[in-house]
């Protein structure tokens, strides 16, 4: 029988296609660059075809390489689902689970959640990856993650979602800002103000604007940041105002800053927090139980 590709070779190839760089792909796979490169060369020799075009700057897939990648990812996902099928037969929260969480949720919910899970299910192994929504969904489809905790809706194919709870947005400003004395603010009051937002790629940005019925062309956006902590410090220094999720306030993100927070007069100025998993996952019942646990925490 002819020798066949290994799952490790296919996973290295998938990582190379995702990152477009041998060094970055090797770091993602937790191996040396020489190990990953040798595995790809061995795979090409085994198949008798060139899968990648190598250059000093980046890696490009050949036309056949694209097809092999698609099939490889399908195989890897099927293998993960096979493992998940066996894990699903065990007692819930007795094995392992890989959870992807977006950065505007992770630091505010995970510490309490992990403490509660460890106390009630000491045998449960929960592995966490914190990334932007698009990258998490890609990892979900590749079989690298089992379930995601993120803000909904987020466009994705072949997935199921479950809403868990609403997270209100609040208006945050310096103590001497014109709106600082208002008990509550109207969303329309924010038009023409210098609103600090997270950079493109963070779904919190889009959900906050949509919840307030605001369009970017109506706003002055002097700066963009990569974290809510940075934005809060910018607000504290009088650079602008912002919208923050209530869960961040509950985690005391404004502590010691002097920044004032105000609720909105309108109802429904919030984002939906929920779970997402592959529609063919055999662990949907366990994910639903995880949702119950998060919602009750």
UniProtKB/TrEMBL annotation:
Cite the Pfam families for this sequence: HTH_1, LysR_substrate
Keywords per UniProt: DNA-binding, Transcription, Transcription regulation
- Could you tell me which InterPro entries the record lists for this protein? LysR_HTH_N, LysR_subst-bd, WH-like_DNA-bd_sf, WH_DNA-bd_sf
Extract the Gene3D superfamilies matched here: Periplasmic binding protein-like II (3.40.190.10), Winged helix-like DNA-binding domain superfamily/Winged helix DNA-binding domain (1.10.10.10)
Chain ranges of the HTH lysR-type domain: 5-62
Q: Does the keyword Transcription apply?
A: yes
Q: Which family does it belong to?
A: Belongs to the LysR transcriptional regulatory family.
For this entry, the protein name equals Hydrogen peroxide-inducible genes activator
Species this protein is from? Candidatus Litorirhabdus singularis
């Amino acid at each position: 029988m002819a020798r066949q590709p290994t799952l490790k070779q296919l996973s290295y190839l998938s990582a190379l296609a995702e990152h477009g760089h041998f060094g970055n792909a090797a770091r993602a796979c937790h191996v040396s660059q020489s190990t990953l490169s040798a595995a790809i060369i061995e795979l090409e020799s085994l198949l008798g075809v060139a899968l990648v075009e190598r250059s000093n700057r980046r890696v490009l897939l050949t036309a056949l390489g694209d097809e092999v990648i698609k099939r490889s990812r399908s195989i890897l996902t099927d293998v993960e689902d096979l493992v998940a099928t066996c894990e699903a037969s065990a007692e819930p929260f007795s094995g392992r689970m890989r959870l992807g969480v977006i950065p505007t949720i992770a630091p505010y919910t995970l510490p309490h959640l992990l403490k509660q899970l460890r106390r009630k299910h000491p045998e449960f192994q929960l592995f966490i990856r914190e990334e932007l929504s698009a990258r998490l969904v890609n990892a979900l489809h590749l079989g690298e993650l089992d379930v995601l905790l993120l803000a909904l809706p987020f466009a994705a194919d072949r997935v199921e979602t479950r809403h868990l709870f609403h997270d209100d947005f609040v208006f945050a400003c310096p103590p001497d800002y014109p709106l600082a004395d208002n008990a509550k603010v109207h969303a329309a009051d924010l038009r023409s103000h210098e609103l600090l937002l997270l950079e493109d790629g963070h779904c919190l940005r889009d959900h906050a604007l949509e919840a307030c019925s605001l369009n970017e062309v109506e706003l002055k956006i002097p700066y963009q940041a990569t974290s809510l902590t940075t934005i809060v410090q910018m607000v504290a220094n009088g650079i602008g105002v912002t919208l923050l999720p209530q869960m961040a306030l509950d985690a005391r993100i404004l502590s010691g800053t002097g920044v004032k927070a105000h609720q909105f007069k309108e109802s429904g100025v919030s984002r939906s927090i929920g779970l997402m998993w592959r529609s063919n996952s055999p662990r949907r019942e366990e994910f639903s139980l995880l949702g119950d646990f998060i919602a009750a925490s």
